[in-house]
Amino acid sequence: MEEIKSSEFVSANIAVLGGGPMGIYLSTYLSPKAKEIFLWYDDRKRAAKIEKERVASILEDSITLPENVHIRSELDFLRTGSWILVIAVPSRLMEGVLDELIKVLDKNSSHFIFTFTKGLLSSSTRRKTNCITYSEYLRKLSVTGEFKDIEYTAVNGPNILGELKRGHHSFYCLSSFGSKSVEIFETLFDGSRNHTKTYEDLVGLEVFGVMKNPIAIACGIASGIPECGSNFEGELISLGYSEIISLLETLGIPTRLVSEYGLADLIVSCTSRYSRNKAYGHRFVHKLISGEDQPNLIERIELFFNPAEFIQKEVSQSESHVEGAFSLASIIALAEEKNVEIPLYNTLFQILTRRVSPTELIRFVSKSTSDEVRHISKTATKRSGLGTASGKKFQEALSKNVLRHINGQPGMTDRIVKQSPLLVKSLEKRYKEAEEADDITDLLQIPKEIQLWNEVEKKFQEKGNKDLTRILDFYVSEIADDYKPFLRDTLIHLIAPARYILSGFKPGAGLPKIGGCVKEVKALASRYDILYTPTHRSHLDSIEVAFGLKWLGLPVPRYAADKKVMATPGLASVLKTLGAYMVDRKRNRNILYLECLTQYSTMMLEAGIPTLVYPEGTRSRTGGILPIKTGILSTSVEAYKHTGSEVIVVPIALSYENVPEDEEFCGTDNKVSFKDFFYKRTEVYMDLCEPIPVSRYIHEEDPTGLIGFEITQGWKKYRRILPNQLVARLLTGPEVAVNELRNLIKETILTTKGNYLTRDSDEILNRGLKTLKQRKIVSLEKENVKVLDRNLIQYYANMCIDEPF
């Protein structure tokens, strides 16, 4: 957050009403402005908890409240003196808050109210008072209460919280009754990235601020329908804007300046990835598609008799401050009172109350009456019966697919053929290395590969022939698995207990400990094709994922196995029957080979076969998350385009207490033996991240780049931060006192967000030190922790930060 200079101090009393994310942000931002800031919560228990812990959350970040921010759950503290009140309560509480303020504020003092809350008065209050907005209501209350000096200012954007907290440029459109409010606001929010504009049309600014939010929900719903892209959302915004103008004109509100104080706010709310209203709409569709959203009998009754209350109840249970859902019924009621048609808002209401499909938006926008748009057809199909595809027929189909793809791209065949002499030289060099290392697999296969590439070169030189069939068949045969489901299932059931026994009955040795979005992934896996994308830390990763998924009852994928792992033809044959396909990372410049790999993964998804890929490309030698290689992710996009069937990308965050290959990664000469994978492995945690529908990004210019970004964000959010990793991160010097380390742990878990295994600082310290001492990475001498292996400390420290130190 942008720092406020101490010279800009305000002597008046300041209180922020509302303990949600915006209220917490505002109280923290304004804390340097006054000697004391009061933050009011409507929940007494929550207020007591926050006051005791002094820690609160803004979106996904935990922050420590400044010392001069005092928590209150009653409004009695406002009874004396003048007050600057900044209101950020949910709209459902706003009328009650205004009623209470009139009761407690000193009528003989000056008060300045600034509200970020967007809403309309309830129908009953509108009928009683003949008022529509909060400003009109407060003005009437203040006259009745004989207040001498009270000013009210409505604050519109664009000033989305997600950008405010990051210190981005933000804009405040203000309108008020009173002469001093604007000057006070500019003093409070005078940062170099805050920009203020003032307008005289207070009621118009309030009504527009309310009506923009449901349109953002509609855009969120559209973003979850594959047929709808940015073009469709743009049309939705245009139609929504027209309906807002119609209602404003009927209310007698001038619309000349609407484009200045409202249009930017509307566009940002409907398009920003930080928009809570748009995110709610997208999640709504996602739940419908996944089958999670099934109202029970009581909810169906409530939907029938009181649909508006059902929407509000549903939102309050799942999201905070999704104002578009809370205000929707009030907007429709107001339009009905004024005899104004607002069909977009009515359609949205019908969708949120489950009376019509979300695709009714398409019918409304396109004015279509076709049955074609009644269902979200493109995301509701999963091909069945092909999950075990393998064998010669599949390999033949793969070869034909690769050839068709190569021939369909101008110049690709020429590039492949011209590459053959360079590939032969590279293979001859690699064969000599295999002789020195006694690499059986390479010694058997490389001569055959050299022979085939020489044939390609010879045919091209003698006859101009560009026949790649034989070398292509060689690569396809090497790559393809020979999946036998019965054998794999049997081995999974046998190996897990065997690992537990061979490890000496260590807790967690048989299976990984599983968390994250399990329920959501299960719901989606029964309907759609799945691409698993785990972090890559060890050769054990594929085994851990297979065991974990089988235990959950989720489809176990085909997966890539490095050629090193398939060390002999016999072992390669066994692994292929378990669903592994071979990947040779040394061929990373072989155009034909890379095309085979890409098409293989694409065909798996097209056939409805769950697949696993490692977007990082290789095991992380640093312990941290590596930049994603988006090439392999293109398979999910291509599969979606070819079949029209949804592909769900499921990121998986794997966290190892001890990685068997850690010493190898840290530069020692220790080679990992087969036994190390049993004895060095202790506890492993597997967290399923939020699923990513490919359809969400299919219309973007760079869908694979955006999917890659979402995968990385999921890994960072869900990866389990283990005690030994956190302790390693905090051991920055050669020696640290135990008490100092304990305090550093407490400070870190309070100020740094993360999916901590535990937040108990003593447990983290004791368990973390125990693990590191057992591995002789640290020692404990006279209440001091001494680092014995700086490289391993660095390796595990990198597991809980975004970038390596």
From TrEMBL:
CDD domains with a match to the protein in the record: LPLAT_DHAPAT-like (cd07993)
Location of the Phospholipid/glycerol acyltransferase domain: 530-657
InterPro entries: 6-PGluconate_DH-like_C_sf (IPR008927), 6PGD_dom2 (IPR013328), G3P_DH_NAD-dep (IPR006168), G3P_DH_NAD-dep_C (IPR006109), G3P_DH_NAD-dep_N (IPR011128), GPAT/DHAPAT_LPLAT (IPR041728), NAD(P)-bd_dom_sf (IPR036291), Plipid/glycerol_acylTrfase (IPR002123)
GO biological process, one term: phospholipid biosynthetic process
Keyword vocabulary terms for this entry: Lipid biosynthesis, Lipid metabolism, NAD, Oxidoreductase, Phospholipid biosynthesis, Phospholipid metabolism
Entry GO MF terms: acyltransferase activity; glycerol-3-phosphate dehydrogenase [NAD(P)+] activity; NAD binding
Keyword NAD: yes
GO CC annotation terms, alphabetical: cytosol
UniProt-recorded name of the protein: Glycerol-3-phosphate dehydrogenase (NAD(+))
Species per Swiss-Prot/TrEMBL record: Leptospira alstonii serovar Pingchang str. 80-412
